[in-house]
Amino acid sequence: MFDWLYKLIELLVVNVFGLSMESGIGSSVHFFFYDTIKILILLGTMIFLISYVRSYFPAERTKKILEKFGGIKGNIMASLLGIVTPFCSCSSVPLFIGFVEAEIPLGVTFSFLITSPIVNEAAFAILLASFGWKVALIYVVTGVVVGVIGGIIIDKLHLENQVEEYVYQLKMGSKPIEELTRKDRVNFAIQNVKDIFKRVWLFLIIGIAIGAAIHGWAPEEILSQYAGPDNPLAVLVAVLCGIPLYSNALGTIPIAEALINKGVGIGTALAFMMAVTALSAPEMILLRKVIKPKLIATFVAVTGTAIIIVGYLFNIIL
Description:
Layout: H1 3-16, H2 24-54, H3 59-67, H4 71-84, H5 92-101, H6 106-118, H7 121-131, H8 133-156, H9 165-169, H10 182-217, H11 220-227, H12 234-242, H13 249-261, H14 266-278, H15 281-287, H16 293-317
Helix pairs in contact: 1-2, 2-7, 2-10, 3-4, 4-6, 4-8, 6-8, 7-8, 7-13, 8-16, 10-13, 12-14, 12-16, 13-14, 14-16
């Protein structure tokens, strides 16, 4: 899809910068410029298209939809809505309170909380650019499955008493759902593109820079030996390393791409990315305001285990 861009950046590196593509610095410079432009093109396109769809699913409508579903159907619907509904760690508390107020089951709520930060239009765009349709689609399906399974397990454990008592007493009220015209939706999508670029550009540049350094300088043999798909502990270590960190999918995918190019298993790299986005330390700190440590620990354990399993499956099938 981007062969033309690859060759154009190669000409820039060789003829303008005077660097060899075989050298570490030349390879790193090419990776940085190529990935930055490629990601920006796809990112803008995918954010606009999915934001247009997202305009049909404001938070109030999401709550109303989830109120109609129970059991496993509720978990599936919550995870699917998590794909097209905006979510970041800063919105975890109000969303959680709103769902509890609407008497949405705890397991369904967590299906949404798990899937939403993992699967989004930005992550899909970069995965599509970096790995192609197959990996991007499998990643989306995997994110939904992790959310559904995680929510079901949390529901079966009956941990409602692990929600802070004051949450059940809050009444936030409901906002009327505003009906938008087509022009409004286009403007919403354009504004969302601008807002997301403002929020993520630094993460994106840092992630691509780290990926470029790995691509040009990291020893391929060592990475392949210790983090390749044949190492049975690689996925586990990747998830344990990812949980304490904080970034978003945009900052981690370029790193995952560089690691995979160096021989790290696809499942290992993507498991690291999922752990960082779904189980970030800031999100856990914010969630502590509404749920007790036992439920947080359960959430981390269930989601982390599911991500580890998914990582091994990716290593096997890809």
